[in-house]
Design goal:
By secondary structure, the protein is mainly α. The protein has 9 helices and no strands. 69% of the residues lie in helices and 0% in strands. Helix 1 runs antiparallel to helix 2, helix 5 runs antiparallel to helix 6 and helix 7 runs antiparallel to helix 9. Bound molecules: adenosine-5'-diphosphate (ADP) and magnesium ion (2 copies). One magnesium ion binds next to loops.
């Protein structure tokens, strides 16, 4: 497939919601070690609002699916919900009427990354979701430049996001609540970065190669 149509976007978000549900307790435990322990409930409530607002699968468009995601996350308390929400809003606006191709997806994710960095001020290496999102965005941009298929682009983005998420275990935070515990959080993965990896892995599993 060369276009993420509405049904693909719907299935991607559904798969991500299930993947998040399976990881929710572990991600909450990470936020308890390095933050305040509300990450899992924050994101679960955002995903519940999203699924309540999703259009029916057969009439879904890329824009309406990511629009529902954006609103669901923007209405969430905590730091990560609004940041994810702004990113999903940029992604929702990247698509054409029929869906998003590799170039549009790469542009939407790059724009979402820039928005999160503008709002939150985090750079790569600050032990946040940026450590997974920035390499995923770079991988998508490279895939778009190379004329890769969506499957190849998602595989590259998912792999890059996972490597980036794993890298946060070695980092000491300088942004967000994890910065309050400093060295104590060494060895603890950043839950926002792991969630970004789950997001692109769910896309890769949905869109295929
Ligand atoms: P809070 O810390 O307000 O309780 P959450 O628990 O919902 O917020 O989210 C924590 C996540 O937010 C972290 O794992 C990290 O990925 C992300 N985060 C925190 N601060 C920033 C920031 N300035 N920029 C980007 N992401 C951030
Ligand atoms: Mg928290
Ligand atoms: Mg909190």
């Amino acid at each position: 497939t060369e276009l993420i149509a509405g049904t693909h976007a719907f299935d991607w978000i559904t798969r991500f919601t299930h993947a998040f549900g399976a990881a929710q307790q572990a991600l909450t435990d990470l936020d308890r070690l390095a933050g305040d322990g509300d990450f899992g409930t924050n994101i679960a409530s955002a995903l519940r609002r999203t699924s309540d607002a999703l259009p029916d699968r057969d009439i879904a468009t890329f824009g309406t699916v990511f629009g529902a995601m954006s609103r669901g996350f923007l209405a969430t308390g905590g730091t990560s919900g609004p940041l994810f929400g702004m990113c999903f809003r940029d992604i929702s606006r990247s698509a054409s009427a029929d869906g998003a191709n590799v170039v549009e997806l790469a542009a939407g994710v790059a724009s979402g990354l820039a928005t999160i960095q503008k709002l939150g001020g985090a750079k790569v290496g600050d032990n946040t979701m940026i450590d997974a999102l920035a390499p995923a965005s770079d991988a998508l941009t490279a895939a778009a430049d190379d004329g890769a298929t969506l499957g190849q682009a998602f595989a590259a983005a998912a792999a890059a996001a996972r490597v980036g998420a794993e890298s946060t275990g070695d980092l000491v935070a300088s942004r967000g609540r994890a910065s309050y515990v400093g060295e104590l959080a060494r060895g603890v993965l950043d839950p926002g970065a792991v969630t970004i990896a789950l997001f692109f892995e769910s896309g890769a599993a949905t869109i295929g190669v």
